[in-house]
What we know:
33% of the residues lie in helices and 31% in strands. It is of the alpha+beta class. A hairpin with a 7-residue loop joins strand 4 (70-78) and strand 5. The longest helix has 17 residues, at 48-64.
Amino acid sequence: MKKFFKHIKLTLKIKLNKPTNFSFLSPNEKCNPVGPELKVYHSFLSGMLEWECRWRLTEEVILNDLNANAIKVIRTENVENSYSLYKNTVFQPCKI
């Protein structure tokens, strides 16, 4: 039953288009990693990296009870060719 309510909560956040607002850390800042590295596929357009990372981590926090409040970007790489408009980004959920 608890899992059902978690899915309802996530669905409401999606419908309202309100991801949780996580802090972004620079690669040299210290933090406590709280889960596995996560990967997102996003457009190269302005702001899409932050948007996709926030949504992916919001999903993990709600569905898997991950105790994170910050995002540390590990690496970003082009998809297939260097002229692609899409990128893969790997980030680490952290607790500060």
